[in-house]
Amino acid sequence: MATIANNLEVVRSRISQACLTVQRPPASVTLLAVSKTFPAENVRDAFNAGQKLFGENYVQEALDKISALSDIRDQIQWHLIGPLQSNKTRPVAEAFDWVHTVDRLKIAQRLSEQRPVHLPPLQVCVQVNTSGEDSKSGCAPAEALALAQAVAQLPRLKLRGIMALPAPSPDPAVQHEALKQVRVHFDHWRQHGLDVDTLSMGMSNDLEAAVQEGATMVRIGTAIFGHR
Ligand SMILES: *Cc1c(COP(=O)(O)O)cnc(C)c1O
Known about the structure:
The chain is of the alpha/beta class. The chain is built from 9 helices and 8 strands. The chain has helices at 2-21, 40-48, 59-68, 89-95, 105-114, 141-152, 172-191, 207-212, 222-225, and strands spanning 30-34, 53-56, 77-80, 98-102, 122-127, 157-163, 198-200, 217-220. It binds pyridoxal-5'-phosphate. The site of pyridoxal-5'-phosphate has 14 residues, from strand 8 and helix 9.
């Protein structure tokens, strides 16, 4: 427990330090703690250390944790950051606050239709495959703006921005190059009048580069919870 709290402190200070280097206010970067594969008790430890936003990759695993932590449901935001198949949209629309991995219109339409009316709109990012990463998920860069515009029209969704998962590289120059491309898309969407505020990129190994390239939400797993 002390470890997770300490790790969170280290990650928060990495964010602040990176912000300093580019004169951004630390509050302009939101920390999403990626808890996939770790048990609900670890999420609770992080919550007790002040963390409120959690990211999960696998729908069933996330539903189990959401239910184990139902007593603090109102104080937590659950973000789906893993690939979403169309036969899994209903539980996601019912249980999550955010989905970062909308990569085709059909998924977005289903999420909008299935989002319960008593809940606020589902907050979504369109995932763009900006660097042809091996994960195969994310829409093609050439189709991203049109998809984002279509998603923005759906009644039960709120388009928040763009998510990307550049291929990992230990080389900061390569990291910067890939992250910069995501930023270019984000700026392009805004120039086209889309009301978006979220640039979701940056993981444990490229957090600094992501913040320097303008990330507004970083998704950090290993540096908080340990190796999977
Ligand atoms: C696992 C995962 C992360 C966190 O990665 P770490 O390297 O553990 O920080 C972030 N984003 C996505 C989409 C992930 O699947």
